[in-house]
Amino acid sequence: MALDVAVLVSLGRHPASGRMRPARADARALELALRLPDARLHVIHAGDPAEPALRDFLGMGVAEVAVLDLPKGADPLPALAGHLKTLRPALVLTGQRAEAGEDSGLLPYLLAEALDAALVPAVVAASFEGDTAALQQALPRGRRRDLRASWPLVATVSPSAPAPRLPAFGPARRGRIETLAAEALADTARSEWKEKPARRRPKRLKVIGKGSAADRVKAVTEMQGGKGKLLTDVTPEAAAEAVWAYLVEEGIVRERGSE
């Protein structure tokens, strides 16, 4: 039996060009949904339906993106919660946080509370098993944990999930943007904020407790030498041996003959 899966997508800005683009975390959520067999996908965006970057989601192989038409500065939570209550999907997938706006990461938790659904963060894989979902969760230091959860369920996708496929031009042009009317409520809390450019945080200096004042100043200001060494006028074989020895010493590769 096919299950309804909703994917919440948003837009961010390219760090170099400043152009709008699909949020990387949400693109990974869509990639995860596209790999689910027998799933009826509903891709949902809250914002401006005329934004050209939305077509990149269509280019990933989606026939339609539903856009809840909201002006800039509106709170997307009531509109998304109302639409999802009507749609009633078994699974809601989204990124852990947006790349624009408040970027707090609280939206999935507030949606789960509004939908009376469980929430599983940092998911890297998902599948259907009867009336439950089999999920794999990313843990610190590359570890993974297998979980099971019942419907309805909200899951945020980890940045270590499979990378999204590149959008294709043809599907991006053929896909449809469906505009849906939504009640726009002003974000009153955000309207009271004061925004200013971020400042680079100062680096903490390492405290040197021994030696004279001159020695402490020298320890703070001088360049610290690394563990590497400079090789000049060596044969390619000797250079390769030195690189291999460094990789073995750092634990990046294993010694020859070891298992």
Could you explain how this protein is built, in words?
The chain is an alpha/beta fold and 259 residues long. The chain has one domain (3-191): HUPs (Rossmann fold, 3-Layer(aba) Sandwich). Helix content is 27%, strand content 28%. It is built from eight helices and 13 strands. The chain has helices at 24-34, 55-58, 76-87, 107-115, 169-174, 188-191, 213-221, 236-249, and strands at residues 3-8, 11-13, 20-22, 39-47, 64-69, 74-75, 91-95, 118-129, 132-138, 144-150, 153-157, 176-181, 185-186. The chain has a nine-stranded mixed sheet with strand order 10-9-8-11-7-1-4-5-12, with helices on both faces. It has a two-stranded antiparallel sheet with strand order 2-3. Strand 8 and strand 9 (132-138) form a beta hairpin. Helix 3 (76-87) crosses helix 4. The longest helix is centred in the last third of the chain and has 14 residues, at 236-249.
Using the coordinates above, name the CATH class.
Alpha Beta
Residue stretches low in confidence (pLDDT < 50, at least 5 long) are: none
The strand count comes to 13
Whole-Å distance between the termini? 45 Å
Report Rg.
25 Å
CATH homologous superfamily designation: HUPs
Total of helices: 8
